[in-house]
Amino acid sequence: MNVRSKVELADIAIPSTADTMPTAALMLSGPPIEPLTRLMTYDSGKWEEFINEWVTSLGTTYKSVQRFTGAGDKGVDVAAFTDSKQLLGVWHNYQCKHYSKSLGPADAYLEIGKCLWFSFNEEFDPPSRYFFVAPRGVSTKLGLLLANKSKLKAGLYKAWEKTVSTKITSTRSVELEGDFKAYVEAFDFTIFEAAAPLKILEQHRKTPYFIQRFGGGLPARPKVNDLPETIDPHEAVYTKKLFAAYSDHSGASIQTPKDFTGLPKLRKHFNRSREAFYHSESLRVFVRDKTEPGTYESLQDEVCDAVADTCDGDHSDGLARVVAVTDKAQNLKLDAHPLSPSTFPRDLKGICHQLANDDRLDWSDDD
User: Fold this and answer.
1) Average pLDDT, stretch 340-349?
2) Residue limits of the ABC-three component systems C-terminal domain (predicted)?
């Protein structure tokens, strides 16, 4: 006997994208991933790298920051030092844990045990602050223990034999007795705390590493300040080279802006060159704290490599060389460079003058 199925079937609705416009970036990489979600995909090594970057954002709080990797780190992942004594001075420990769940008491007890044991054995002075850092934060239970130090210590004692004693080192069991127990009794458990992932991200956003890790691009550039009337000392080299190029072109001796009398086209070119220089200087300052070290310098290198042959070519005079090189620069396509979206043609011309200022480009044979 045939039994008719009573299961009702329905067509699967295809999600509509009619209200969005596809972009090249979307088609290439898919929708952006929220930073907190991206952190969940890290392995323990990348998580420690991220925390190391974050700690650098804490500014003048620390004299130096070091990341300890590999076996035998004695429970020190990222150490931040406030003085030159490092592990024997005043320092903070950032204990990195990257698990598929929030950090629980058992995880914390073992790390606290390591801190107690190795500081007792004078491997390092106890840190003045000890942070647990995990992408999913700490569990409610651990959070409550960290907020109540007497209960944290009591919980450690209770869990010691099962969770801690045999896992501190691979060579022996560490018993909570004798001088070591007296050391633990007197230890300041208020140093242990947890760092909130969202706060970490908020502070990491201020580092030059954030954009490369999480994308999103640079913010809009501020307007460039008005050109100063007088030549600043840091403009001395490239402006001197321009004066030599103008002298080569005109046959007149041009050593200061006052010598442009009767030469309006050269004066205008000089003013445009200074404007371009300051435009590129504003870009350099703009990206300095928003990108990794060397990012702007790599843009300068790209421009230098692109215009080198033009600069070395034959030209009727120094000014002709300047014009040929800066024209070549402003027409460059640097789409693959991370600063491309924030770079204008005038910046590229200005970079040529920055390179001249650094003695990487010359306009006249006697420069």
Assistant:
1) 93
2) 235-363
